[in-house]
């Protein structure tokens, strides 16, 4: 863009959001160019420049977002939405430059509705802040992802996020009522106030998981839950994972614990030993169950009967409580992988009839194709019909040359994801697609991809919204 046109666009954006909320400063552009995607951090770490936006704007509400999108459409400038920048898929990186729209000024709580059981808040609110607001009145949002302190309401909706008590309370898409969304043409729309309706497809589900490619979420009504009277934990050690899957499937046909987390032998022997203190071989599983005491007493009995039948060693409540206290510690420096290591989480979701095979096939594919790469996994989020593998690869000595490092990184992802798809898995449970996995979306969906492409074409004919993300 030449200087004249650049300045023209700048003045229009300043008019839309206020001069103080529109930046072209290098510091703002650099800080909005690296998210939690390993490639972006590696690229910057090796002294290379990540793609940067030309303008960083911070609108205060849907009306200002609408004005920005109208300007972007007129000049056909790409718009990338940035929440907390805690995404792992490069979704918030402005790969084509243009306008970076930071949502964090839209962080107000508009309504605390105890009768309707929801908080209405701006999509730029950091999730922890709305959890605190709920706690002050004796409620909880029951959304506890490990990135609670750094990611936004809009970011979790855009990636269909999930937290540790998901098995009982669900994913973010189970926790949202009405949303306010600004369409690419600047129209402000509202999804219906009661999502479980039969008045056509649920509009929420079109925007949840759409990663800023179809519109910008500006407000949401997030459900609140009464705090449980008791929350109990129980650690178990299984001799092998097959028994753990059978026991868990049987349990889930009867009741839903809040936390269910099964670690493979490698992760039990490393992270669980180090952080939780379980020093025996096997597959560690932590279960939490909660609610009204009388019901929890019954659930505990059912849990112990079923797990005992499948030969699980009952480790009591101590390790489970320790796990809960340390649940964020897993992501602290010293425990979490970090540069110069290369790593990634290939979260894969599948029904029970496929999940264990997918784990073994992915492990084999990664370890045989890349002998210097380790594969560890746990199974975090469980449903009556299946669960997700939080499978990680770790390379201690990736190539120093950034181009070679990117090559190896993408090869590992191709092998892992293609193995998952070939065995009936779905690419991703809750981290989203972003730029990282966009190329694999067609392999996942085949001709069904045209449904997404059609939506994109209709809603965003100029293709300005977050280009190259989500395979669109
Ligand atoms: C240490 C760590 C632990 C994590 N643990 C979890 C976990 O337990 N569970 C989990 O689900 N995730 C987890 N994540 C991943 C991350 O927190 C989620 O992907 C989260 O949804 C990203 O939100 P954000 O606000 O940081 O979004 P960003 O990274 O800023 O953006 C993510 C994507 O959403 C789009 N977007 C952001 N806001 C909006 C909006 N208002 N409207 C439309 N599009 C928007 C962006 O354009 C981008 O495509 C973890 C990340 C880290 C770093």
Task: Describe the protein in words.
By secondary structure, this protein is of the alpha+beta class. The protein folds into four domains: 100 residues, Uridine Diphospho-n-acetylenolpyruvylglucosamine Reductase, domain 2 (2-Layer Sandwich); 118 residues, Uridine Diphospho-n-acetylenolpyruvylglucosamine Reductase, domain 3 (2-Layer Sandwich); 102 residues, Alpha-Beta Plaits, CATH 3.30.70; 117 residues, GMP Synthetase, Chain A, domain 3 (2-Layer Sandwich), CATH 3.30.300. The chain is built from 16 helices and 19 strands. A hairpin with a 3-residue loop joins β18 and β19. α1 packs antiparallel against α4, α9 runs antiparallel to α11 and α13 runs antiparallel to α14. The radius of gyration is 23 Å and the shape is globular. The mean pLDDT is 96. Flavin-adenine dinucleotide binds next to β3, α6 and β10.
């Amino acid at each position: 863009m030449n200087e004249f046109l650049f300045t023209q666009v700048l003045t229009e954006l300043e008019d839309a959001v206020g001069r103080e909320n529109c930046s072209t400063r290098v510091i703002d552009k650099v800080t909005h160019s690296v998210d939690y995607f390993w490639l972006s951090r590696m690229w910057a770490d090796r002294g290379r420049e990540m793609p940067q936006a030309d303008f960083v704007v911070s609108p205060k509400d849907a009306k200002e977002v609408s004005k920005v999108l109208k300007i972007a459409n007129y000049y056909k400038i790409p718009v990338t939405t940035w929440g907390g920048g805690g995404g792992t898929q490069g979704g918030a990186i402005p790969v084509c430059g243009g306008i970076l729209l930071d949502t964090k000024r839209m962080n107000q709580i508009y309504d605390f509705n105890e009768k309707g059981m929801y908080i209405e808040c701006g999509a730029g609110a950091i999730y922890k802040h709305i959890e605190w607001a709920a706690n002050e009145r004796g409620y909880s949002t029951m959304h506890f992802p490990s990135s609670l302190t750094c990611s936004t309401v809009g970011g979790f909706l855009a990636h269909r996020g999930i937290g540790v008590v998901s098995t009982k309370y669900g994913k973010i898409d189970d926790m949202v009522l009405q949303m306010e969304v600004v369409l690419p043409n600047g129209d402000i729309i509202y999804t219906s106030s009661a999502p479980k309706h039969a008045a056509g497809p649920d509009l929420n589900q079109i925007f949840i998981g759409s990663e800023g490619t179809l519109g910008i979420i500006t407000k949401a009504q997030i459900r609140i839950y009464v705090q449980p009277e008791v929350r109990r934990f129980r650690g178990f050690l299984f001799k092998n994972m097959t028994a753990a899957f059978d026991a868990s499937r049987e349990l889930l046909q009867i009741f839903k614990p809040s936390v269910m987390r099964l670690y493979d032998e490698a992760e039990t022997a490393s992270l669980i030993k180090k952080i939780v203190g379980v020093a025996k071989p096997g597959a560690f599983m932590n279960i939490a169950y909660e609610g009204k005491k009388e019901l929890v007493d019954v659930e505990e009995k059912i849990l112990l009967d079923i797990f005992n039948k499948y030969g699980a060693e009952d480790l009591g409540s101590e390790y489970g409580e320790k796990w809960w206290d340390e649940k964020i510690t897993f992501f602290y420096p010293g425990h979490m992988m970090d540069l110069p290591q290369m790593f990634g989480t290939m979260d894969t979701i599948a029904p029970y009839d496929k999940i264990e095979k997918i784990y073994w096939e992915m492990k084999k594919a990664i370890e045989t194709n890349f002998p210097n790469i380790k594969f560890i996994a746990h199974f975090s989020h469980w449903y009556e019909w299946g669960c997700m593998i939080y499978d990680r690869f770790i390379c201690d000595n990736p190539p120093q040359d950034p181009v070679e490092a990117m090559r190896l990184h993408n090869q590992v992802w191709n092998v892992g994801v293609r193995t998952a798809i070939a065995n009936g898995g779905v690419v991703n449970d809750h981290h989203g697609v972003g730029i990282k996995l966009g190329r694999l979306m067609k392999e996942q969906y085949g001709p069904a991809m045209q449904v997404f492409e059609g939506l994109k074409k209709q809603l965003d004919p100029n293709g300005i919204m977050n280009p190259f993300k989500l395979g669109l």
